[in-house]
Write a structure and sequence with these properties.
This protein has 560 residues and is α/β, with parallel strands linked by helices. The chain folds into three domains: 206 residues, Rossmann fold (3-Layer(aba) Sandwich); 146 residues, 3-Layer(aba) Sandwich (D-Maltodextrin-Binding Protein, domain 2); 151 residues, D-Maltodextrin-Binding Protein, domain 2 (3-Layer(aba) Sandwich), CATH 3.40.190. Helices cover 39% and strands 19% of the residues. The protein has 18 helices and 20 strands.
């Protein structure tokens, strides 16, 4: 068929207009939340086919309540970094050691010390050779294992003494073998241009910091105080200031109200320091964040920031647990003496560089720590209820054990969601379905949520971006009639996207809506999910099937 010039012109003009329209609202053209929401609506109307078959089945609700201690993962998820085993000739001692001492490179101080100590082949009183084994585990998680009695090592070296105080307050008689093994401090990493807003005479001025954050003129982030030593230290520092140093007033209503007002000015609480640091470097949102000095001197890309110490010192005390017998305590004492003789090496790993700093407060009782965590759990949203959409991957690769464990994880961790928040559920494979619209998490909604989860089945491909766009649309629509709610998405996926819209075609919409997208990579490492989480200060977490309950539960405990 031959086209005349006039016919060709009539066909070309509509095609050109369509191209210009697509280009005008394509990637890179969105520069406001309003434009993002508008474009989101257009995508939902024209580019994504999804069903809205809402679940109506109400499941039974368990009367017993889940807590983090009851859903801890297997200790095998945290293998020994340096192994040592008992035998007829070896007295082996296992130490839970925090991440900054049991990692690689300049985070490997305890590994270096233990390896050198083991090479000495020192004999103890029973004639056996002393050997140290190291298990790398975050301080808060290590304390949770010991509290639950799920797994108790011979020794525990958290970043600071707060975790030892917590264990003692719960009747677990840990014995302090050494008060200091790797001298360190916690600090606020502050943008140099904003330093004067939170300091006086080059020292952290807590009252100025509180005023700046509460007024909205200063963007501050910190880490989960259930997991992070620095986050817990910061929480206690803030509460101590509100209570004017009176530990007995930490639970007072005016202290809780003041903390809630402060928390309203905090953009987000990260799961760990790495996530916090990346948020500061990549997004440029944060004026300040918390970090240990040892991590600070080893970090790159933060030349515009300065370190200001706060709170109790982080000197990595060494405790013997009740599991350690007299011979094992002897090994620990010898190891502590060996470290003390080699303190000159601490500086090579970034420790021991602020010897003059004195702790900013002293707790009389470890029970105060539990009280502080409870205040944080209750008030962390700054008085705003939360509306969340769960986005669950039910593609073919999830069939079997993976889907079974995902269902268990969602059901168990749902106990950690406050009834004041609102919850919805989207599931997806090659297509997307809205299984549950967003409603307050009442007993009825919880029953429907569990019922929807129980009826999930796996089949087909993986259209993650489509599902996230549907979840974003559900939340932005909900927000029109609930503007007071804080919006958030939780994505759980075991595979890379192979269906539906490409990430590049929707990334601007995801970013400019400003809704945090927390992603859990289920038995995989995913740059796609990691990038998605980084768009608006979300958390990216990698999880095995067995540890999914704890990973999701820990995230919900800090977010919901």
């Amino acid at each position: 068929m031959t086209l005349h010039k006039k016919q060709y012109k009539h066909m070309l003009i509509p095609l050109l207009l369509t191209f210009l329209s697509v280009t005008a609202c394509g990637p890179g053209s969105i520069d406001s939340k309003e434009k993002a929401v508008e474009q989101l609506g257009s995508i939902i109307d024209s580019d994504i086919q999804y069903s809205q078959r809402e679940n109506t089945y109400r499941a039974n609700i368990q009367l017993s309540q889940t807590n983090l201690l009851s859903i801890l993962p297997s200790i095998d998820e945290y293998p020994m970094t340096l192994d040592a085993r008992d035998s007829s000739s070896v007295e082996a001692v296992e130490i839970f050691t925090s991440s900054e001492k049991a990692g690689s490179g300049r985070d490997g101080f305890y590994l270096e010390m233990a390896d050198q100590f083991n090479q000495q082949r020192i004999k103890v009183g029973n004639g056996k050779t002393a050997q140290i084994g190291i298990r790398k585990i975050a301080s808060g998680l290590g304390a949770q294992f010991i509290l639950s009695q799920r797994y108790v090592p011979d020794a525990f070296s958290p970043s600071n003494e707060l975790w030892g105080d917590m264990l003692s307050a719960q009747g677990i008689n840990v014995r302090k073998v050494a008060a200091v093994t790797a001298p360190n401090t916690a600090g606020v990493i502050v943008r140099k241009s904003k330093k004067d807003l939170i300091t006086s005479n080059n020292k952290l001025d807590i009252q100025k910091l509180l005023n700046a954050v509460t007024s909205g003129s200063f963007s501050m982030g910190y880490t989960n105080p259930y997991q992070s030593s620095t986050g817990l230290n910061f929480l206690l520092t803030i509460l101590n200031e509100f209570a004017e140093g009176d530990e007995g007033q930490f639970l007072a209503p005016d202290v809780a109200s003041a903390f809630e007002a402060f928390q309203a000015g905090v953009p987000f609480v990260a799961q760990n320091t790495l996530q916090m640091r990346d948020a500061a470097i990549n997004s440029g949102v944060l004026d300040a964040l918390v970090m240990e000095h040892q991590s600070w001197v080893n970090v790159k890309g933060m030349g515009d920031y300065e370190f200001v110490p706060f709170g109790v010192r982080h000197d990595s005390p060494l405790y013997a647990t009740p599991n350690a017998d007299s011979s094992e305590i002897e090994v620990l004492e010898l190891f502590a003496q060996f470290i003390e003789k080699n303190q000159r090496l601490t500086r090579e790993y970034g420790f021991g560089q602020q010897a003059d700093y004195q702790s900013g407060y002293v707790l009389e009782s470890g029970t105060t720590i539990f009280s502080a965590q409870k205040i944080w759990k209750d008030k962390k949203s700054g008085g705003r209820p939360i509306a969340a959409m769960f986005v669950a991957d039910v593609s073919g690769s999830m069939d079997g054990t993976r889907l079974k464990n995902l269902k268990r994880a969602l059901i168990e961790s749902s106990d950690l969601i406050s009834s004041t928040n609102s919850i919805g559920l989207v599931s997806y494979n090659s297509k997307v379905n809205v299984d549950l619209y967003i409603r307050p998490f009442s007993v009825q909604q919880k029953s429907l949520f569990i019922g929807a989860v129980e009826r999930l089945s796996a089949l087909g491909g993986t259209a993650t971006n489509d599902a996230v766009m549907v979840a974003l649309h559900q939340l932005t629509e909900f927000a029109k009639s609930h503007p007071d709610h804080k919006l958030v998405i939780f994505v759980l996926s075991d595979g890379e996207t192979n269906k539906g819209m490409t990430y590049d075609s929707v990334v601007d919409v995801m970013q400019w809506t400003g809704i945090p997208i927390h992603t859990i990579a289920y038995e995989l490492s995913s740059e796609h999910l990691k990038s998605m989480a980084s768009l608006a200060e979300g958390a990216y977490i990698e999880s095995s099937a067995e540890s999914a309950s704890y990973r999701i539960g820990n995230l919900l405990n800090s977010e919901m």
